[in-house]
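Page 37, continued from 36.
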């Protein structure tokens, strides 16, 4: 894991023409989850080049029905927006630019979410403890029973701090510590260890959170 992370291994992959910046194992896990859960709404924080929201939209396309994807990002760059909006899967995608933890963005998400019954959430934006904990507090409650809140890049806690010298996150301050903190007071979620044990290599250890109540 250390070797591949150091070499930016996740940047080798794309989905339907757009960089997805995920490990193949986690992409496969999400495919299995989406097919199992059959969500009619997928909410994602962090858009980057758009590969992940296009992946989610394509999975909903295979499921059929009217499922849609909401993508949130504090900065949707013009060239990425152009490529996403011209993609065949954009018909299922709504993007909002702004801080995912702001009340203005959350209100927009909730206004759409109330029209849906089966919701999956993926968190993959700013990786600091504070930010991820705020995202969990805002968006995890929208997750349907039996569905998931997937928190990416929890692996930061397990990697050498020297890998993040130019980032505001690191050991003790990352998505995994936010997950641990959130779960202390939210027993409606459990960590599905079966997923990460099967994957062997994942950027989301302790990050596959299944809602059970």
């Amino acid at each position: 894991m250390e070797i591949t992370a150091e070499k930016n291994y996740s940047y080798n992959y794309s989905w339907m023409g757009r960089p997805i910046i995920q490990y193949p194992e986690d992409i496969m896990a999400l495919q299995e989850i989406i097919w199992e859960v059959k969500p009619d709404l997928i909410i994602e924080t962090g858009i980057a080049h758009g590969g992940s929201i296009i992946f989610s939209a394509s999975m909903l396309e295979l499921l059929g029905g009217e499922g849609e994807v909401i993508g949130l990002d504090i900065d949707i760059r013009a060239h990425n927006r152009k490529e996403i909006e011209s993609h065949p899967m954009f018909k299922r995608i709504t993007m909002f630019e702004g801080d995912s933890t702001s009340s203005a963005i959350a209100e927009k998400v909730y206004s759409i979410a109330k029209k849906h019954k089966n919701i999956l959430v993926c968190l993959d934006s700013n990786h600091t403890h504070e930010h991820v904990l705020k995202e969990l507090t805002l968006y995890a409650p929208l997750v349907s029973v039996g569905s998931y809140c997937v928190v990416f890049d929890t692996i930061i806690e397990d990697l050498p701090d020297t890998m993040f010298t130019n980032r505001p996150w690191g050991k003790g301050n990352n998505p995994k510590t936010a997950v641990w903190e959130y779960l202390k007071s939210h027993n409606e979620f459990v960590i599905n260890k079966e997923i990460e044990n099967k994957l062997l290599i994942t950027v989301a250890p302790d990050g596959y959170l299944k809602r059970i109540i």
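The two ends are 33 Å apart (CA to CA). Flag for discussion at group meeting. The chain has one domain: 2-211.
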